[in-house]
Amino acid sequence: xxxxxxxxxLVWIGFAAIVCWGGLKLGFGSFHQPxxxxxxxxxxxVLGLLxxxxxxxxxxxxxxxxxxxxxxxxxxxxxxxxxxLVMLFIYTVFFNTLGFIIATILLLFFLYRVMEPRxxxxxxxxxxxxxxxxxxxxxxxxxxxxxxxxxGF
Amino acid sequence: xxxxxxxxIGFSVALQPMNLFxxxxxxxxxxxxxxxxGLGPVAAMSLLLPATFHTTPVASxxxxxxxxxxxxxxxxxxxxxxxxxxxxASVMTCLDGYQMxxxxxxxxxxxxxxxxxxxxxxxxxxxxMLISPPLVNFALKxxxxxxxxxxxxxxxxxxxxxxxxxxxxxxxxxxxxxxGCIGLDNISGLARFxxxxxxxxxxxxxxxxxxxxxxxxEVMLNIELKIKREVFTSEVKGLLPTLGDWRKSIWxxxxxxxxxxxxxxxxxxxxxxxxxxSYAIEKKVSKHPxxxxxxxxxxxxxxxxxxxxxxQGAFIPLLTLGIPSNVVMAMLLGALIIHGVTPGPLLLSxxxxxxxGVVASMYVGNAMLLALNLPLIGIWVQxxxxxxxxxxxxxxxxxxxxxxxxxxxSMDVLIMLxxxxxxxxxxxxxxxxxxxxxxxxxxxxxxxxLRQSLIKSKGSFSIFFTRPISAVCLxxxxxxxxxxxxxxxxxxxxxxxxxxxT
Lengths: 153, 502
Prior knowledge:
The complex is a heterodimer of chains A (153) and B (502).
Chain A: H1 3-26, H2 38-61, H3 69-73, H4 78-98, H5 100-115, H6 120-141
Helix pairs in contact in A: 1-2, 4-5, 5-6
Chain B: H1 2-14, H2 17-35, H3 41-48, H4 57-82, H5 91-102, H6 106-139, H7 144-162, H8 166-181, E1 183-184, E2 191-192, H9 206-224, H10 243-265, H11 271-285, H12 298-313, H13 315-321, H14 327-338, H15 347-350, H16 352-373, H17 377-383, H18 388-407, H19 410-428, H20 433-456, H21 463-466, H22 468-482, H23 492-497
Helix pairs in contact in B: 1-16, 2-4, 2-16, 3-4, 3-9, 3-14, 3-18, 4-5, 4-6, 4-12, 4-14, 4-16, 5-6, 5-12, 6-10, 6-12, 6-13, 6-16, 7-8, 7-20, 7-22, 8-20, 9-18, 9-19, 9-20, 10-11, 10-12, 11-12, 18-19
């Protein structure tokens, strides 16, 4: 049993059911007077039915030709991957408060260290230079409205 | 005569110093993102979209278009020298291009790829000039049912051609339609799936979705992979192909150009499919098919010509019908709308300077690309030496700033990250992002066309089958849906899945 595909199909079916329910709540209307929920309901219905077809054909054929669970999830550096994601979410949350410069320097400290261990002084200098170049390019060059944060610029 | 007049108008626009600068910038950035694996034209275009807000619509579209066809040129460099396609349309070039490099023939491989791209690109532009005006007259007959059916056909072609599993590709298209429903309903003004979040009332932005699905997810995959890069830099010499190389390649370039151009026009087609199909056909018609995959120059010339011709052809449905045929064109559609230009049949009459200016800029851009790709190959090669550990924080930063600066909203960055995770999981589960994005972009147009058609027909679906253009499109779409169920039929998407692309 290839559990990944089974779970994936069940998730899609569940998601489609929620969308259909949401569509009905918005109001389906009728075919000659479709309302706001018309398209979400139809799209959800199509998604759910297709996921069901995929699930049934997978069960019947034992997911022949699909990658095995091990093949999909083996050799993943989970720590590095999840840590990068968490840092990106934290960056997003504090982006406006800390401002572009501080938030980006802190993010780059982490990102430059995460792939391969480098001396801290290299990481610090690289983070400052990269942030500076991006600031000059986007804020000054392209007039992007990057947040100043508590520093105010 | 009219065509010549229009071309004169086009060149007078394209050769203005500012437009010339944006054209150069576009093809330069395009080549750069084509060369660098992990950063494709879609991500680059979405990143630079906010930067074009201060320019004219013509300059903006000239630059965006330059990025697209520039990436097609640049993508071959990494395929040939590193065996890693710079972008998806260059996957087939890896097969023979890298083998040629290993045999010490990197120069001719790069050379034929650049010349083939130039020839195909130029022929593609001529085709675009000739086909667009009559197609516009045809498109004026289109009403909501025709638009609906054509969009359905486009989605069906994309799902038919791109994925090993058509059911899963259609699932992704349905998912894209659902994401496209988020925000205020176009007709009633009711908020849908916005969960009282004000930023979601305008819907989910194309840029964060695309950057997440194609940029962040790619970075996530690369973090877990250990790619060993072997760059053949010392052997890049003699870029001009020999007479023998030309003799072998000229018909491959011709066939690649024709196939690429017509597959590019097809809604749902595009450069990736064109390069796969042209390689397969080239192998089939060759007298020495056994040489393919072992360094046959035809295997480089045909897909490179095809992806460049397709890049030009793809502009036709967007500029004449207002329907994007692939994700890149969807980005251009977004750019046009942001600049207050509605693409469609009236674009040619309402904004002739934009249309012909962009067409003429493509001639100029193609010439620039030839100059950029051949003499500057050494610089592009050096770029490949940048380790991924340095490159990936920069890609992440580009994505973060790019999605933030569209609306100056952290919510867009959050949406991008969420779609980054979704994109990563989709890649793990062999679910393709392209049908999802195309359906997401077409979703609001598709819904409006469907609802308008049903209101007009008082709820009868016969309206889609009683109007000839609509009926033909839907019948073709249904045929594409049924064909994979036939036991003797083997879909091209399924066949491509089994090609040895390593």
